[in-house]
Amino acid sequence: MTKERMEQLREQIDEINFKILDLMNERGYLAKEIGVLKKAQGINRYDPVRERKMLDRLIQHNDGPFDNGTIEHIFKEIFKASLELQEIDDHKTLLVSRENKNENTVVRVKGVRIGDEQPQFIFGPCSVESYEQTRAVAKRMKEKGLKLFRGGAFKPRTSPYDFQGLGWEGLKILKEIGEEFNLAIVSEIVHPSHIEKALEYVDVIQIGARNMQNFELLKEAGRVKKPVLLKRGMSATIEEFMLAAEYIVSKGNEEIILCERGIRTYERATRNTLDITSVPILKKETHLPVIVDVTHSTGRRDLLLPASKAALAIGADGIMAEVHPDPAVALSDARQQMDLDQFDSFFEQLISNERN
Ligand SMILES: O=C(O)C(=O)C[C@]1(C(=O)O)C=C[C@@H](O)C=C1
């Protein structure tokens, strides 16, 4: 008997649930329409006076069993949800979003396809210090059949007294070495007025973490036909990172590679905290390729291999890491770059892991 009664009651609740659902959605459509009218009249959508009046009237009619506080709470949630509905309508779909374009963007650089099935690798010294130093790394990369070579010529450094890079001289070295070994050159550009001239030297324009919100630089990079490697700012949220990429795409350049390079947190065991889950989030939310810079995120040679494996396992399209013939005497990032032998063993282990 009690069992039957319980079933009856549950059936009634189920029916009421559907009624509430229909009424909620009917209410939602009305709120959306009000939202459109408010927008046209330039009125603020959030109306606390109206909300207060509605709550007062509801409380006057409330015969229980729910107490007034509970009723207020439930309806406040409904108002909040309606407000969100009104805002979604106004939310422009980003060009970088999956919603806007479902298929993956594949960035092509000298025959290498970034964002396609195969993971890709970008290696090279932190800074171009000399022709010999740069060439030694490029030669080792060429022997491994690697194609994407990084090297910093313009170096935005925290301290003005640290090595600032060789500038145009560094880009000349990179170009020469790129031609000798048929490597694609990835190098950072820091000034909007340098973009045009840099096209002669680089195959990929890198925009560094410190410049992720240099909007004039982003716009200029958006105006040219050259792939851009955009690094996540050190304190940037994923949304801010996506909006930075949007600046570039909105000017006409869709050839963007996003690069997770760690964010600043309270943790000091690593140089930055590698936000590994940003990779699948960015892959889900955008159509752009995503790579991970294991050197700047970890700042530790001993973590380069596990961090790279983790990045590929979680869906990264590639890895970036720094290699120097003699890291101990490097002019920047001496503690985190691999020497050539370490590079051999790192790469060997990484690709054998990929094969298995
Ligand atoms: O009545 C309005 O002005 C609405 O926009 C609708 C509504 C609601 O859901 O009831 C939504 C948000 C406002 O803060 C107040 C009320």
UniProtKB/TrEMBL annotation:
Sequence ranges assigned to domain Chorismate mutase in this UniProt record: 1-90
InterPro entries: Aldolase_TIM (IPR013785), Chorismate_mutase_GmP-bac (IPR010954), Class-I_DAHP_synthase (IPR052899), CM_dom_sf (IPR036979), CM_II_prokaryot (IPR002701), DAHP1/KDSA (IPR006218), DAHP_syn_2 (IPR006268)
Keyword line: Transferase
Pfam entry (one): CM_2
SUPFAM superfamilies in the cross-refs: Aldolase (SSF51569)
Coiled-coil regions listed in the entry: none
PROSITE patterns hit by this protein: CHORISMATE_MUT_2
Molecular function (Gene Ontology), one example: transferase activity
GO biological process: aromatic amino acid family biosynthetic process; chorismate metabolic process
Name of the protein in question: Bifunctional 3-deoxy-7-phosphoheptulonate synthase/chorismate mutase
UniProt source species: Fervidibacillus albus
Phylogenetic placement of the source organism: Bacteria, Bacillati, Bacillota, Bacilli, Bacillales
